[in-house]
């Protein structure tokens, strides 16, 4: 399995579609589907049945967006960047923004 370019916790920018230009944090990545959930992006309204825990009605929630429509936010200037991989001197593999060359910090 290839290394993922976009991971949970990354800050991304939407490149195309209804929400073009919006920024958000990745909540969940679905690699098999090639899609991701981004906080506050691609909001849809769903009818939800009332349960013991939740109230019923029309609820707004995030829908999955295709990974090809997302770009990592460059840590240096906040603009969209492509992602590359490189190895550090200690042999650790890291992701970096091709726009500025800055290493993308790991979120854990």
Would you kindly provide a written description of the structure presented here, covering whatever features stand out?
The chain has strands at residues 11-14, 23-30, 35-38, 43-48, 57-62, 65-66, 70-73, 80-81, 83-87, 93-97. The chain has 108 residues and is mainly β. The chain is elongated, with a radius of gyration of 16 Å. It has a single domain (11-97), classed as SH3 type barrels (Roll). Helices cover 0% and strands 43% of the residues.
- Give the proportion of residues in helices: under 10%
Q: Got a strand count?
A: 10
- Helix and strand content put the structural class at mainly beta
Rg, rounded, reads 16 Å
Kindly, what is the distance between the CA atoms of the first and last residues, rounded to a whole number of angstroms? Answer: 21 Å
User: From N to C, what is the helix and strand string?
Assistant: EEEEEEEEEE
Q: What's the helix count?
A: 0
Biggest sheet descriptor = 6 strands, antiparallel
Overall geometry comes to: elongated
- Return the domain count: 1
Strand order of the largest sheet: 6-3-2-1-7-8
Which CATH C-level class is it?
Mainly Beta
According to CATH, what is the topology? SH3 type barrels
**How big a fraction of the residues is strand?**
35-45%
- Outline the low-pLDDT stretches: none
At CATH level 2, the architecture is: Roll
Kindly state the mean pLDDT as a whole number? Answer: 93
């Amino acid at each position: 399995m290839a290394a993922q370019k976009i991971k949970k916790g990354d800050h991304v920018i939407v490149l195309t579609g209804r929400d073009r230009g919006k920024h958000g944090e990745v909540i969940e990545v679905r690699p098999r589907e090639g899609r991701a959930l981004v906080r506050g992006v691609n909001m849809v309204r769903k009818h939800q049945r009332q349960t013991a825990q939740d109230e019923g009605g029309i609820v707004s929630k995030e829908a999955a967006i295709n990974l090809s429509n997302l770009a990592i936010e460059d840590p240096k200037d906040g603009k969209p960047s492509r992602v590359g991989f490189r190895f550090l001197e200690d042999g650790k593999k890291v992701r970096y923004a091709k726009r500025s060359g800055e290493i993308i910090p790991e979120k854990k």
